[in-house]
Write a structure and sequence with these properties.
heterodimer; A: eight-stranded mixed beta sheet; three-stranded antiparallel beta sheet; 12 helices; 30% helix; B: alpha/beta; seven-stranded mixed beta sheet; six-stranded mixed beta sheet; 20 helices; binds iron/sulfur cluster
Chain lengths: 339, 710
């Protein structure tokens, strides 16, 4: 990646495979956003790998003309980790869904985040199981009526950003499938971050959970319902920027009218804060995608990257002991000679 | 024990100044006679906090350096620290040292060192009348006796009358030493295993210096502890020499070994080194993804130390992530390895299936232990064979390789890697708890002579599409091996996507076509079956040439030593027995069919209920009979011998019954053959008549029916 890549176009990044998501699925716009962004990132196809698990989103690698592994349910972060730490020269992307990443693969997700492996994780959150035809997911709202929960789901949903922050994510962001520009900006930031970047994408499953995010991402609602996070800026939203967020003395956040409190009293966003409390508080601001919801980069901090640290241990060991000598190793437990 | 060769007893001296100067070397040499033995089995036993494993390992190491052949059996509890003094907390270490080549840690200990009543109680059943028992007399107080479940003191109640018992106040003598050095009594007390080591070192005439040097090295950072240990060791040695307790001591002369440089190695260490060697031979970076599990963790530990070989080790969040990361590394062009034991193999099953579909090289090491479920974490068993072969959904064949001895783990690891990278397939390498922790002297291989493992990464398109464009087909197979090309990320023009979904033959695109699926299933199966063309034929040890013997004993894995020793003993009775031992369990060597058909009867001993025997019966339609043992311990040579005798005695008799015998349904195995003292080593003796005294496995009628009904 150090040398300059030959300029590419979206076409170069598009594989010959027919895309087979349901017509109207939000996955299409995410795919387009990524395919169009890649030429801008100035990276090489041969150095790019997409790894996925199981679910609708997991078909993604087949449509990218890069290296790709479509593996088994939930395990993409683990497989991508092994690849990224042994090949630090590669750009490794993980494409996953709410069931894949937060249910069956929850353990791998949190440990990838904790280790801070150099991965870019795109979590397509549609709050439903699409591939298996419509069971509730770990991000579905409580009381969700589905085929597997005819009387309503009982469990409390995860907020993916809260989970990621709780797992020591060094980069956590949210975007949505209705805004290509915003997606690309967030993906660009995620790609530039060294370590594990976690991006939640609100994605509409128009077949099994249509309109799940409509109340916040719908064209007519966005201005009033999405709270754009910008580093160093007071947090405000609304068509005129008339609403804002303040932090109370007990550390809790509250939505206000800017006119009531004055701009100088609004909470100023800080992506780089060492402790994750502010980012976490922001992730708790909305109780679901029906209240004003922050989008953008919640957190972006520098932390040692796992693969690099592992590589450094090898370099240091070689400095101390020289490159390994097999004969020496076999004799290291003490020897005796016969004859 | 054998009659002493040297029976010229010299005058016995009297000991002087024993307790007043324990720490210093006693200069008064008191000559007594030294008996020569051709081999001896010593078992150390104590609380799991008593340093028993350390003591046994050092005793072994000194003996190896001295030139003896050695074989060990560590036997420790699953609980790291079960309550002190209880039976559950007893840790033991058995070693056989010999002046000729031996194959097992010995069936029956000649000497048992018991550091407390629990250690005595837990190990007494292993002893034969006449054996030597050395106990730490200080430990036999009322409380300790009670904890061990003794109603009365066995040292006083006559229950040990059949044994030669030496009661030595090890704790108090060690405390005396501690006082001299000026350490706290608590710390001093912990050195009592060194006293025991000293005493046993004297008893078997082991050289002193290597152990003292070893203590110096090992406790270099804690000189005071080192000093107490050294002095306790010397005190134990001197106690043996000067106390009038012992009639004589013993000597086991060096074995005649092939010239070379030797080391003592455990199976886990040898396996880790084999992986490092294989990575060098294949010129691939080694990546290990692993989750700690008994008894496999030491492989992770060993590889984690060897970073200067470029080894990357990752302690994963779980078993699945361990293999997942290894698969990811393999996709990137590394030698991906994961290590585990049974419960972990269960968890890795789905990922192994993925590796079968991806057709990437991968080595899965299963250090087997007693199952099912958590089972017996620290005890050995060979019960994962069928799991390794068939434990996945779908038609999901993988090559399976098994190590036979601790040092063979090195070669088996290289062989597993060779198959994995040559055929682009996951390979399961089976070891077990006995091999993992057991040691044997290993003549170091000549590094230069290890054959390279050629690996060629794809760099060019390999197919022309209908438009005449050169494209890359990830599933276009090598005509000879059936392997698909290994094209690693970073190679321009070879970008491709692979996954767990069924792929179209050649192009690797997702395909749900039924005919294509069958074709791919067959291609994967043929590829694995084709590995047989590259493996060595199974060797048959038959003094009369192939087919000469009346019975073939077929084994695999860690039963090697016991079977080979049992076969020697049976031959010493005049029986005509052959032994073949499998390293490749899938596919089998191509000559196995001919080997099996060359014998009238086939006996397959396994520490499971009969897994290999089931496979060979199914595969080759031979009337092989199994011999099962599932006690968390390896076979004893005597058990194999008895089974051979029984099989041959019933050979011409009427046949009926099931295909499996068992050593016994419950504890102690086959009664020892009274005609052959259990400790007599008679590899060259032929005088022992085939004995009618050996009951043909009385408790298991199934073993008495003949094996001749083809
Ligand atoms: S089921 Fe839903 S998520 Fe899956 S492809 Fe169809 S619309 Fe998209």
């Amino acid at each position: 990646m150090t040398d300059v890549a030959v300029p590419t176009t979206r076409k170069d990044w598009t594989s010959d495979q027919e895309v087979r998501w349901c017509p109207g699925c939000g996955d299409y716009s995410i795919l387009a956003a990524v395919q169009m962004l890649m030429p801008e990132l100035g990276v090489r196809r041969e150095n790019t790998v997409f790894v996925s698990g199981i679910g609708c989103a997991a078909r993604f690698p087949y449509y990218m003309n890069t290296y790709g592994v479509h593996c088994i349910h939930g395990r993409a972060p683990a497989i991508a980790t092994g690849l990224a730490v042994s090949r630090p020269d590669l750009d490794v992307w993980v494409v996953t869904g709410d069931g894949d990443a937060l249910s069956i693969g929850g353990n791998h997700l949190i440990h990838a985040l904790r280790r801070n492996v150099n991965l870019t994780i795109l979590l397509f959150n549609n709050q439903i199981y699409g591939l298996t035809k419509g069971q509730y997911s770990p991000t579905s709202e409580q009381g969700k009526v589905t085929k597997s929960t005819p009387f309503g789901s009982l469990d409390t949903p995860f907020d993916p950003i809260s989970v990621a922050l709780g797992a020591e994510a060094s980069f956590a962001a949210r975007t949505h499938d209705m805004d290509r520009k915003h997606m690309q900006e967030v993906f660009r930031r995620a790609h530039a971050h060294r370590g594990t970047s976690f991006v939640e994408i609100y994605q509409n499953c128009n077949v099994f959970n249509d309109g799940a995010f409509e109340q916040v991402t719908g064209r007519d609602h966005r201005a009033e319902m999405l709270i754009p996070l910008e580093h160093g800026q007071p947090i405000r939203f609304g068509a005129e920027g008339q609403h804002g967020v303040v932090m109370d003395s007990d550390g809790s956040l509250r939505l206000v009218e800017v006119a009531d409190v004055g701009e100088e009293n609004l909470l100023v966003h800080d992506e780089h804060r060492a402790e994750p409390a502010l980012a976490f508080a922001l992730s708790r601001l909305a109780r679901g995608p029906h209240e004003p919801t922050p989008i953008g980069v919640f957190r972006d901090v520098d932390r040692p990257e796992y693969g690099e640290a592992m590589g450094r241990q090898i370099v240091e060991a070689r400095q101390r002991r020289g490159s390994g000598d097999l004969a020496e190793l076999l004799a290291s437990g003490g020897t005796w000679t016969v004859g | 024990m054998r009659l002493p060769r040297d029976t010229t007893a010299t005058a016995r001296g009297r000991h002087t100044g024993l307790v007043d100067n324990l720490g210093a070397a006693v200069s008064v040499v008191i000559p007594r006679h030294t008996q020569e033995l051709d081999r001896v089995v010593v078992r150390f036993a104590g609380d799991s906090g008593d340093g028993i494993q350390l003591t046994g390992t050092q005793f072994t190491s000194v003996s190896s350096v001295f030139g003896n052949d050695t074989a060990t059996l560590p036997d420790f509890p699953a609980e790291i620290r079960a309550p002190a003094g209880t039976l559950a907390g007893v840790s033991a270490f058995q070693v056989q040292i010999s002046d000729h080549d031996i194959l097992t840690p010995g069936d029956v200990p000649n000497a048992l060192v018991a550091m407390n009543p629990a250690a005595l109680r837990a190990n007494l059943e292993l002893m034969m009348p006449g054996g030597t028992i050395i106990v730490n007399g200080d430990a036999f107080d009322e409380r300790a006796l009670e904890k061990a479940g003794y109603q009365s003191n066995p040292l006083a109640d006559g229950s040990l009358a059949a044994f030669t018992v030496y009661e030595v106040p090890m704790t108090s003598l060690t405390m005396e030493v501690g006082k001299e050095v000026g350490v706290k009594p608590r710390d001093a007390e912990r050195s009592k295993n060194f006293f025991a080591l000293g005493l046993v070192s004297w008893l078997y005439s082991r050289p002193v210096e290597p152990t003292i040097e070893w203590i110096d090295r090992r406790f270099a950072g804690r000189p005071q502890i080192g000093e107490v240990n050294t002095k306790a060791f010397r005190a134990g040695y001197n106690f043996g020499e000067t106390a009038e307790l012992f009639e004589s001591n013993y000597q086991v002369r060096p074995a005649a070994a092939a010239p070379g440089t030797y080391t003592n190695v455990t199976g886990n260490t040898a396996l880790a080194w084999g992986l490092i060697a294989a990575a060098q031979l294949a010129k691939l970076p080694l990546f290990l993804g692993s989750y700690p599990i008994t008894p496999a963790s030491d492989i992770l530990h060993e590889l984690s130390k060897q970073k200067h070989f470029g080894v990357r080790t990752m302690q994963a969040e779980d078993e699945i992530a361990g293999i997942g990361a290894a698969i990811g590394a393999a996709f990137g062009g590394a030698l991906g390895v994961t290590t585990t034991s049974g419960p972990g193999l269960d968890l890795k099953s789905e990922s192994i299936g993925l590796a079968v579909a991806l057709e990437l090289p991968l080595v899965i090491v299963d250090v087997q232990r007693g199952g099912p479920s958590t089972g017996l974490p620290t005890k050995t068993e060979q019960s994962d064979l069928l799991h390794a072969l068939y434990g996945r959904h779908g038609e999901s064949p993988v090559p399976v390789v098994a190590a036979s001895t601790p040092s063979h783990c090195f070669d088996a690891a290289i062989e597993a890697v060779r198959i994995a990278v040559t055929y682009r397939t996951p390979v399961i390498l089976l070891s077990d708890g006995y091999l993992a922790n057991g040691t044997e002297p290993w003549r170091l291989p000549d590094i230069e002579s290890l054959p390279e493992i050629p690996v060629v990464f794809a760099t060019e398109p390999n197919h022309t599409d209908p438009d005449g464009r050169a494209v890359f087909w990830p599933y276009e197979r090598d005509l000879q091996t059936g392997a698909r090309p290994w094209a690693v990320p970073g190679t321009p023009g070879l970008e491709h996507r692979i996954g767990g979904l069924e792929k179209a033959h050649g192009s690797g695109s997702v395909s749900y076509d039924g005919a294509n699926h069958e074709r791919m299933v067959r291609e994967r199966a043929d590829k694995v079956a084709g590995v047989a063309a590259s493996i060595a034929p199974v060797k048959v040890d038959d003094p009369d040439g192939l087919g000469g013997a009346e019975l073939l004993v077929l084994g695999w894995g860690s039963t090697f030593g016991a079977i080979a020793a049992g076969v020697r003993r049976a031959r010493a009775r005049g029986l005509r027995v052959a032994h073949a031992h499998l390293v490749h369990l899938n596919p089998f060597p191509e000559n196995l069919a001919a080997v099996l058909r060359a014998y009238q009867s086939v006996l397959v001993p396994e520490t499971n209920l009969g897994q290999l025997v089931r496979l060979v019966r199914a595969e080759y339609l031979v009337d092989a009979r199994g011999l099962a043992k599932l006690q968390g311990l390896p076979f004893r040579a005597a058990e194999i011998e008895s089974a051979i005798v029984a099989a041959m005695a019933s050979h011409s008799g009427p046949s009926a019954g099931a295909m499996f015998a068992s050593t016994t349904p419950s504890a102690p195995a086959v009664p020892p053959n009274p005609a052959v003292p259990p400790n007599a080593s008679t590899p060259s003796s032929t005088a022992v008549p085939p004995s009618t005294a050996v009951p043909p496995n009385a408790s298991t009628p199934s073993s008495t029916r003949g094996a001749s009904n083809r």
